Amino acid sequence: MERIYLDHAATSPMHPEVFQAMKPFFETYFGNPSSIHHFGREARRGLDEAREFIAQKINARFDEIVFTSGGTEADNLAILGYAFANNDKGNHLITTKIEHHAVLHAFQHLEKSGYSVTYLDVNEHGEISMEDLENALTDETILVSIMFGNNEVGSIQPIEEIGRVLAAHQTVFHTDAVQVFGSEQIDVNQLGVDLLAASGHKINGPNGTGFLYIRQGIHLASLQYGGEQERKRRSGTENVPAIVGMQKALELALKESERRKLLYTQFKEILLTSFEQEMINFKVNGNQEQALSHILNVSFPGLNVESILMNLDLDGVAVSSGSACTAGSIDPSHVLTSMFNDKNRSHSAVRFSFGLGNDLAQIEEAAQKVVNVMKRLESQIK
Fold it and tell me: Domain Aminotransferase class V, which positions (predicted)?
């Protein structure tokens, strides 16, 4: 049985060319990039080339890129680091109810530390209201964090418009761009963002690497202590092989981005058309006109998502739920419960996410298997 992987929003397989780009930095250029000898200089060369490449691709300066262990650390460094370093300017922060937990849990920690946080609502498409954002701003607001593209339903926020509004305010603007990095063009100056977090493993790069863009002049408190790496902003020897791999992954992703968008749009059409033709009861979550091309979130009312996931896995299709799965229970997705009053919509939601290795034949096969599972489960509850 061929297994079909449709969970690329969780993590993605490493591209073979990425693996090849990383190999020399395990075998030959293995030195510590802080060392001054030949081995260290060669490692530093790889590190500097990756930093320069990534900076250019998002229209940033070389020294505005700080490498991290992934998107979670980048989000934490941005949010906690800025709040702790700038609490003399105010103690009010703004985010949304549908952020990744790397962001939400950081804000919850700050609330326990005495900060005031406003969590913006979203509409049924997963989009914030600009009016709500403007009304939430106060003289004490020092940080606004709004994700670029949502990891569960794919909704894209009006980042450039938000940046224009915040430009006239003292607040700093952070965005979690983990799901957007490599698939959408990012220009930090055009967008007006001051802090931007990204990760390598969503774009066929290695796990355990990411970066935080920090606009020049912004001061963050360090979250870990040790050496003076990353211009004293993030201690610890840099993971040079993984960083080089992230550079290569970004290069490949940007070359393929337009082709992949068209292909993923076809994938969505195949799945949804199959559900319609087979008269499956389903509801699409999120605005597909303004959404990430690689994510499709669908609820199957009346069915249990845990049963859906288990049956699909047995049939060789790997997908995920927007909910947090624990032994014997499913907690409702905070994203879907923020979008809809109906908790059943969350309890039956499945996220299909596409990427490297998927083709039309796979999606057609997966669509039929999903239909078969849904019909089987529906017959069991009648």
Answer: 4-364
